Amino acid sequence: MNRPQIKTELPGPKAKEIIERDAKVMSTSLSRDVPLVVERTQDVWIYDVDGNEFLDMTSGVGVTNVGHTNPKVVEAIKNQVEKFLHFAGTDFYYEPQVTLAESLNDIRPFEEPGRVFFTNSGTESVEACIKLARYKTRRPLYIGFLGGFHGRSMGSLSFTSSKVIQRRYFSPMMPQVVHIPFPDTYRPPEGVMPEKVTDFVIWYLNRMFETVAPPEDIAAVLVEPIQGEGGYIVPPKDFFPRLKQELDKHGIYLIVDEVQSGMGRTGKMFAIEHFGVEPDIVSIAKGIASGMPMGACLAKSSVMDWEESAHSNTYGGNPVAAVAAIETIKLLKSGLVENAAKIGDYFINQLRELQKKYEVIGDVRGIGLMLAIDFVKDPVKRDYNYELRNKVIQEAFKRGLVCLAAGKSAIRFAPPLTLKEEHVDIAIEILDESIKAALG
Q1: By the 8 A CB rule, do 366 and 234 touch?
Q2: What is the pLDDT at residue 372?
């Protein structure tokens, strides 16, 4: 398999013109790591407006899990568009919405039958989850985790804590969200050994119960099974079982945010399944509909039993997005989840081989095709090296590999789940060259 072909200086002339137009009319809050102007996509490949080719390690930020522009998803969309584009599923009925809810029930990460509330995005899904927990428990408090990302609307932003820029100047947000440390074995709290990080977090949780957050006042804990924007941090295996044990003592719901880690990304349909714990409520989006605006709050039926009109929206469960999601789930179940596990093992082993060449790669981590390499200035001190990380992303882009940052100093790899070993080999070759170039 050939490497991506870069035919022009990047950005090329057409890309430059579009970027200049963008700068005059688009919000200045948008962040773009590389000057990529997309014209078309196919499977794991991106083609820009100047004819350059790129191997994609982002899936549109974890969205196109079944491959870019998957023909079966496209066909399902075309067929639905010719029937009807919209008819509010919150006020009326149509089959695609019901079928999708049944499909989500078939893959739910808990034993009890579930119910679904459809949304249009990840942040809307989180909003639905936290509203449901408050409605059901009548409790005012929540617990979130430092480094977590759950969206940017004012409710979800109250939990988000991966970067201070995301919160600056937006206070006051929704009150009464208490943050505790996430168990990070690579950079544990000072004085805590990596093998004791779960002990520390559980101790911290109970300390919060005793001081500022009475457990009988806590509706839910909201947590990512693997932190996404925070750096692709994978918790120890014992963390979720011990967390759930503590929550069950007090009737506190466990909400898992699977917006980035779900829909097959980690080699299981939902990342929480790696930890042997059943959540009460799940937020879903990104990979659910291959790029159509779709999200969901999936909960146990005993939890999602709020009264009529307690929560609603106009576009949730949109029929075009729904058929895209139905087809996406079929494709995931047809072998792509297993492929994510298989190719993910190959990918992480290749990244570890690359780590042996460069001591600036302090850590290689992840599960399935949710992987990251973390750059450090000193492998013993494990201090963040975001300058080098950013240079590597730029050098990789010049060579036809599109990556995204995560956390303070990590590069994340979240490619389509259609990835093959030969694609991994190309990515590793380009990464090797890019690190060399970035180091000078």
Answers
A1: yes
A2: 98
- Cα angle 324-347-403, degrees, rounded to a multiple of 5: 65
Predicted confidence band of residue 174 (pLDDT cuts 50, 70, 90): confident
Give the percent of the chain with pLDDT over 70: 100
Q: Is residue 175 predicted with pLDDT exceeding 90?
A: no
pLDDT tens, residue by residue, 92-131: 999 999 999 999 999 999 999 999 999 999 999 999 999 9
**191 and 169 belong to one structural domain:** yes
Are 326 and 341 in a shared domain?
no
Q: How many residues does the chain have?
A: 440
CB 428, CB 350: distance < 8 Å: yes
Q: Give the total number of structural domains in the chain.
A: 2
387 and 416: one domain? yes
- CA-based nearest residue to 281, from 270, 289, 292, 291: 270
pTM of the model: 0.97
Q: For tokens 């050939």, what's the residue?
A: 2
Residue 350 shares a structural domain with residue 363: yes
How many alpha carbons fall within 13 Å on the CB side of residue 403?
A: 29
- Residue found by looking up tokens 């996430």 in the block: 182
Q: Which residues are registered as beta bridge partners of 12?
A: none
Is 7 part of a structural domain of the chain?
Answer: no
Whether residue 152 contacts residue 140, with contact meaning beta carbons closer than 8 Å, is answered with no
Q: Which CATH number goes with the domain that contains 137?
A: 3.40.640.10
The 10s digit of each residue's pLDDT in 338-375 is 999 999 999 999 999 999 999 999 999 999 999 999 99
Q: Which residues of 2-15 are buried (b: 16+ CB within 10 A; e: fewer)?
A: eebebeeebbbeeb
Same domain, 260 and 139: yes
Which residue range forms the structural domain that includes residue 177?
Answer: 72-332
Residue 2 within any structural domain of the chain = no
Is residue 96 located within the same domain as residue 216?
Answer: yes
Helix intervals (H) in 58-153: 59-62, 71-81, 95-106, 122-137
Q: Are 328 and 138 in contact (CB under 8 A)?
A: no
Which residue among 302, 332, 362 closes a domain?
A: 332
Q: Which residue has the tokens 């977090």?
A: 201
Residues 101 and 177 in one domain: yes
Same domain, 245 and 286: yes
Per residue in 193-246, pLDDT tens? Answer: 999 999 999 999 999 999 999 999 999 999 999 999 999 999 999 999 999 999
